[in-house]
């Protein structure tokens, strides 16, 4: 009706769904009760989706977040999200409402257009980026990307070096594993290999973000909001690696002792290497 959304039946199985038409970065939400009524929602959940099929609940402090709603029909309750949501579809799910009325909501969503470059991989391909070694800094290396997939295994990133040195970011059974195998194994047998695993159930067809930062011997590995900091000992020098990065697979199977490693099957978004937009570069060239 004209006064806002009020379902015929007030129970826990109602929701109000919005299609924003395209992926949008949502930064805040606001609610009111039904106009001129005794209908308002006192608490609700917020869910989001890219497809309208599989949904994720907004979480804060690692737990599902119930938003405090309204205490009357007309006051606006505004809530700035601690973490912005990138999604096309939103669902407001009422949990409780005025006991002397029904579910009633007017809502507003705040945000802006989300700029993204997306590339799909079919499990048989990879994207190779060769960069100018003159622009290469020995001190700093930053790689960031987002991915989503329904496959539990696949190579996200690989960089080969001389003598079998390599860095590989791989999805194994739904977890992300960063393997750094650098340095002469004869002179540094114990320090030559670093293998760190982060995340779980990352094959849930939702977007997950990855950030790898390398400054001198300090490496930060971040998956979603969880970061692992570590020092790489020994001969940790990115400059021993070739000036080529491959995303989604390993170009020459069998190199660096890789046996039966699967190429990535899914989507990447906004791949950046030291500020270079790799997907945009691939599209233009």
From TrEMBL:
- How does the record say this protein sits in the membrane? Single-pass type I membrane protein
| Domain Laminin G, chain residue ranges per copy | 118-285
- Which residue range or ranges hold the F5/8 type C domain? 1-112
| Entry's Gene Ontology cellular component terms | membrane
**Which keywords appear in this protein's UniProt record, sorted alphabetically?**
EGF-like domain, Membrane, Signal, Transmembrane, Transmembrane helix
> Which SMART domains does this chain map to?
FA58C, LamG
Please give the CDD domains that the UniProt record associates with this protein: FA58C, LamG
**SUPFAM superfamilies recorded:** Concanavalin A-like lectins/glucanases, Galactose-binding domain-like
A Pfam match: Laminin_G_2
Provide the transmembrane region boundaries.
Answer: none
Protein location: Membrane
Please give the InterPro entries that the UniProt record associates with this protein. ConA-like_dom_sf, FA58C, Galactose-bd-like_sf, Laminin_G, Neurexin-related_CASP
Family of the protein in this entry:
Belongs to the neurexin family.
| Protein name as annotated | Contactin-associated protein-like 4
